[in-house]
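Notes to self after the Tuesday call (sharing in case useful).
The group wants a holo model before anyone commits to mutagenesis around the pocket. I volunteered. Ligand is NDP. Logging inputs and output together so the record is complete.
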Amino acid sequence: MSHPLFDVTGRIALVTGSSRGIGLALARGLAEAGCTVVLNGRDPERLERAAADLPGDVRTSTFDVTDGASVAAGIARTEEEVGPLDILVNNAGMQLRAPLLEFADADWHRLLDTNLTSAFLVGREAARGMTRRGHGKIVNICSLQSEVVRPGIAPYAATKGALKMLTKGMCADWGPYGVQVNGLGPGYIETELTRPLVEDEEFSAWVRRRTPAGRWGRTEDLVGGLLYLVSPAADFVGGQVLYVDGGMSSVL
Ligand code: NDP
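Result:
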């Protein structure tokens, strides 16, 4: 029998960027735990295909997380059609790798919009109802790179470092209204986003060597951490980032 502290049955959860990869695995985990899950992305057909493969009550909500008007309409529509949100996972994100001297202005803005502004926009709209109702859980998907950086990834790390601080700020603002905000920080996880790195044998071997667990992460590795953070067991945990990285952020 599962412990009641970890019971999230019947909660309504929106996971942004859940058409594939980490978001889809987290959505599956929430659905398996008994949540009503709302998948989000920019392509409605891709979302319907993803939803068809998940157990339980799974809905979709198509909107671009970088566009304020589209976010506000998307959250309002979701709450009207599905019900008030109990859980939000700000997962949508992207990665661009290039040396800073070669990094284009447009890429910088696109990265910031997708990885950081999105969490502000979606978080703010979801928190309007959560703070009014006096409860809610928000988890921002940060990164190992919220803490450390390597050459060629400074703009991405800057967005994820800022997302960590936004997580603490959201906790400060919304914690008094019963809304708990934390971060989940994946290490190197095999997804479409990291495919070029996985296919680079030298880099891939470096990841395995540098990770105490001795392997790349799988999307399913992140589910337990998320379920903890959105469950009553974490009701007094706020503004923290839980790193799920096989130990990589702890070693030199
Ligand atoms: P993927 O590229 O596999 O998936 C990204 C998801 O985000 C897709 O579902 C995509 O949906 C969605 N998305 C992208 N832009 C938007 C947008 N503007 N509006 C709505 N949805 C959008 O990435 P991962 O699963 O690997 O990464 C997920 C998160 O985890 C990201 O925030 C990433 O930074 C973070 N992370 C990943 C790590 C890894 O090793 N993979 C490590 C640390 C953190 P669609 O294209 O259908 O719109």
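Two things stood out.
The first strand starts at residue 12 and ends at 15.
DSSP finds eight helices and seven strands in the chain.
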